[in-house]
Amino acid sequence: MSLLEVQDVHTYYGNIHALKGVSLSVEEGEIVTLIGGNGAGKTTTLRTICGLLQPRQGRVLLRGEDLTETKPHEIVRRGVAMVPEGRGIFARLTVAENLDLGAYTRTDRGAIREDLDRVFVLFPRLRERIRQVAGTLSGGEQQMLATARALMAHPRLLLMDEPSMGLAPILVESIFDTLKAINQEGTTILLVEQNAHMALQVAHRGYVLQTGQIVLAKSALELRQDPMVQKAYLGID
Questions:
Q1: Concatenated DSSP letters of 96-160
Q2: Which of 126-130, 136-140, 167-171 shows the lowest per-residue confidence on average (mean pLDDT)?
Q3: What confidence tens digit (pLDDT) does each residue in 71-112 have?
Q4: Domain ranges in the chain?
Q5: Span 29-49, average pLDDT
């Protein structure tokens, strides 16, 4: 049984048919990437998985359990956390307060403390900035905080939406190294990323989404070698 299954999902914004029968799966322990152009439906797919959007048709299953009509906070309780596009940190709160809010569904204080120590190992800069107001952090530090906040929910599945957006190249490398470390520690990741080259370097498998439909599903290596992917997303003619 897959950790995540999205089955024939159709999601709308009003009368706009954004997802047209999207089906994908993520196995325990994988990094799976979803690539595609602007407006392809990548963010809509993540928002549907985490309950922020309700599909008109189809199902979202977590280890076989139907989450399709489950409230977003309950989906977090069941092990799915999201790092949104644009980071979505609470700018007026401190780093510590943002991290506390990441664990708001939990009551296991000892385990929360262990996860806090874990995110400080992954992101030592956040320990240095623990009392700083989040809105005064640099863009790279805000991305670290958004990721750390999601990890404080102790997710089985981490959804990441455009983690490299707006970051300098050296920070992009660092973010993707951290993603690999998070995955190696046991967290499964579904990654949406405009930087297809980097995404396909860290992912095990990938899907290509065009105008709300999956058009390719292959291993990351096969996608890197696919002529259509090379031309459309990797800048190789």
A1: HHHHHHHTTT---HHHHHHHHHHHHHH-HHHHHTTTSBGGGS-HHHHHHHHHHHHHTT--SEEEE
A2: 167-171
A3: 999 999 999 999 998 888 999 999 999 999 999 988 999 999
A4: 1-79+157-163+190-237
A5: 96
Beta-carbon contacts of 190 under 8 Å, excluding residues fewer than 6 positions away, are 4, 26, 32, 33, 34, 46, 49, 157, 158, 159, 160
Closest C-alpha among 28, 76, 16 to residue 189: 28
Residue of 154, 162, 198 whose CA lies nearest to 180: 198
What was the pLDDT predicted at 203? Answer: 98
Phi–psi pair at 76, nearest 5 degrees: -60, -45
- Rounded-to-integer distance, Cα 10 and Cα 21, Å: 5
Q: Where are the beta strands (DSSP E) in the chain?
A: 4-13, 16-26, 31-35, 57-62, 65-66, 80-83, 157-161, 188-192, 205-210, 213-219
Length, in residues, of the chain: 237
Q: What are the residues facing 57 on neighbouring strands?
A: 10
Answer yes or no: are the C-beta atoms of 80 and 49 closer than 8 Å. yes
CA 57 to CA 229: how far, in whole Å?
Answer: 29
The SS3 call for residue 189 is strand
Q: Would you say the pTM of this structure is higher than 0.85?
A: yes
Phi, psi at residue 11, to the nearest 5°? -125, 140
Level-2 CATH architecture, domain 1-79+157-163+190-237: 3-Layer(aba) Sandwich (3.40)
CA-to-CA distance for 197 and 71, rounded, in angstroms?
34
